[in-house]
Design goal:
38% strand; four-stranded antiparallel sheet; DUF4232; DUF4232 domain-containing protein; seven-stranded mixed sheet; 1 helix; Immunoglobulin-like; 16 strands; mainly beta; signal
Length: 185
């Protein structure tokens, strides 16, 4: 299992640098289910956490071990001007000192670029398979969701709203991150 939080930050920053033209500065967010940041006039037109409101959920929790669940994350542009989302959000799930960086959903393109108009919302979804409760060999008791928008270095942190996530291996959860879609789709 990956246990160094700095490894995620470095990997996420490297991945996001490859997928977008602009980056912003920031620190981690809180454990709220919703957070907001003040608009900014940073150079470039990539959407940043400073320009957005985030909401995690409501989720479609997997009812039993082996079932699939989904956790949507909604991004709303509060900057007053259009910005772009190019690629896939960088997502990490953590359980105590262990962490896993999620791979994109099959078919999701890192080259897709969408315009997010002022006050418009887009959603990306974390799909996962529920693990068996209290079975550390087959599942992880995920407690935190961390993500960064493509091209932004600010990592946003939220409480994971669902039960355990199944492990594919010690280094990989049975979970993926989907592309940005207009909210409600």
């Amino acid at each position: 299992m990956r246990t160094a939080p700095t490894a995620f930050a470095a990997a996420l920053l490297a991945a996001l640098t490859l997928t977008a033209c602009s980056s912003g500065d920031g620190d981690g967010g809180g454990d709220d289910s919703k957070t907001s940041a003040a608009p900014t006039t940073e150079s470039g037109n990539a959407c940043t956490a400073a320009q957005a409101d985030f909401e995690v959920g409501p989720s479609s929790a997997a009812p039993a071990a082996g079932d699939e669940g989904a956790v949507p994350v909604t991004v709303t542009n509060k900057s007053g001007a259009a910005c772009t989302l190019k690629g896939i959000a960088g997502v990490e799930l953590t359980a105590g000192d262990s962490s896993w960086t999620l791979q994109p959903q099959e078919g999701a393109s890192r080259d897709t670029e969408l315009t997010l108009e002022a006050d418009q919302s887009m959603t990306f979804t974390i799909s996962y398979v529920r693990g068996a409760a209290d079975d550390a060999e087959k599942s992880a008791a995920v407690d935190q969701l961390k993500f960064a928008l493509p091209g932004d270095s600010k990592v946003n942190s939220f409480k994971w709203p669902d039960p355990e996530v199944a492990l594919k291996s010690a280094d990989e959860l049975d979970a993926t991150v989907g592309p940005f879609l207009p909210a409600g789709d």
